Amino acid sequence: MIANSLSSSCQTKAYLRRLRKAYRELSARYCDYHLTLAANRNTMSAKDMTFMSLEHFRDCVRDFHKRIDTELLGTRASKRRKDLRTDGLMFVEHVGRNIHGHAAVVFAGNGQKTLEELQEMCSRHWSAVCPGGDLLVQAEFDGGPGLYVSKEMERGHYDFDQTILLSTFVSKD
């Protein structure tokens, strides 16, 4: 029994390493920026802070995505092809207590906004959908945030339902 448990544990760790590598390769497609979206504990009600569900957070991210694409692409953003829209890979952490997400993102609009403009735009829209929430935009750089977005996977207890691919919010091919 112990040998099987040890073998199973090693297989699970090897699987998670391979999966993390695959996520790293996928996230390389979204290497322009890294976002951290947090539901701020200091300004939320105790109920929201303690019990914000993954579904509620996902709905906030969906609304945020729609808002930034509308600002970057105009009111007909939803009619644009997926490859022209904002896309990224997000890992949600600490569901139910201090929920937040880390994402590797490429924004729509072919770099028409500076980092400062993206920070202002994203902060404004995140605050609208998650009052009191915080958002940080970082440009990718050599040695930058890199794999930080998937750090929870190394701990071995990651729930893959907590992974959000922003393109799932886009219906147009």
Globular, elongated, flat, extended or rod-shaped: what is the shape? globular
Task: Give the end-to-end Cα distance, rounded to a whole number of Å.
Answer: 50 Å
Largest sheet strand order: 4-1-3-2-5
Radius of gyration: 17 Å
SS-derived structural category:
alpha+beta
Task: Give a quick account of the main beta sheet: strands, pairing sense, barrel closure.
Answer: 5 strands, antiparallel
Estimate the strand proportion: 15-25%
Secondary structure tally, helices = 4
> Helical content, roughly?
25-40%
Task: Characterize the structure shown.
It contains 4 helices and 5 strands. It is an alpha+beta fold and 173 residues long. The chain is globular and about 50 Å long. The chain has a 5-stranded antiparallel β-sheet with strand order 4-1-3-2-5, covered by helices on one side. α3 packs across α4.
